[in-house]
């Protein structure tokens, strides 16, 4: 057979497959209607395993490949059944909390002090807000938990330093939600007393991440790096201690706030350093223009388990923008997967997919559906 003849045979087979798969989906729909009428859960692991074992046994060739295809077919079938039943606990929670996030006249908790990058981000997120400042990320979460602030603003990712894992851990432990996100360009500047010159500087003070992002510049000038809890805190201490040989690595806003001069601008190792900030809340506000979803879940120790979940994102045309794993606490060699992807829960196919996923994994945490610039 030549190539054209082989392709014609494939086209014929595909036409037959389409008809058979449509019949199978009709049957899956009927099963969903029966389960709805009789209060039967969508996922039947024993039935699923039985089908997969039959496929493996009956397939004389390509056993593993066909088993993989059938797993995807059954996943799509369960999504269609979710659309029929529509009584997922996850869906109920979301539908009760679809609301527009307030943008002004709110209390907001920030890590650091006035002039810190989180403070700058806070002013980007909110109009006429009332910021309160806290020493640590955990303190920000505690403030929102106690009701001292309705929202918290925190960094979660940097183009050079990667994810701020402590914030993700706190999101999980507090069961809070991401309700907005924004990526801001961060400019690190060498700032000192107005009487100092660059030749006077022996020590540079800043947050450990800022020191890392400026490591090449620091090494070139043979400065001694000293870690502080925040870039703006470092700037304030330089002003308070009035040591001519000490400089802070901070923003121009912090330099102005604490009366320091900028000895040199944009000293970070990369021309562009971008930090992603989020707004956290106890309530999962979901606006009409929400375009990003964050999730955390685990998968069983089974061959292809993660791959099957990720395939569904591709099937639905959802763009994954972030994926990383983190070890589960109090579990040996078990991992949680953190995902960000484009989408809006008002899209029924997205809702059906997440309802299905929430019921098929042991750990599932919806971390927010929000708008990100």
The SSE order reads: HHHHEHEHEEHEEEHHEHEHEEEHEEHE
Radius of gyration, rounded?
26 Å
Structural class by helix and strand composition: alpha/beta
**Shape assignment:** elongated
Count every beta strand, where a strand is a DSSP E run of 2 or more residues.
Answer: 15
What is the CA-CA span between the terminal residues? 54 Å
Helix content: 40-55%
Average of the residue pLDDT scores: 88
The profile of the biggest β sheet is: 10 strands, mixed
What do these coordinates show?
The protein has 373 residues and is α/β, with parallel strands linked by helices. It contains 13 helices and 15 strands. It has helices at residues 3-38, 45-58, 63-85, 89-95, 117-125, 137-146, 165-174, 208-213, 215-220, 231-241, 252-257, 305-315, 348-360, and strands at residues 107-111, 130-134, 151-158, 162-163, 177-186, 189-192, 203-206, 224-227, 246-250, 261-264, 273-281, 292-297, 320-327, 335-342, 364-372. The strands form two sheets. Strands 1, 2, 3, 4, 5, 11, 12, 13, 14 and 15 form a ten-stranded mixed sheet that branches. A five-stranded mixed sheet has the order 8-7-9-6-10. It is elongated and about 80 Å long.
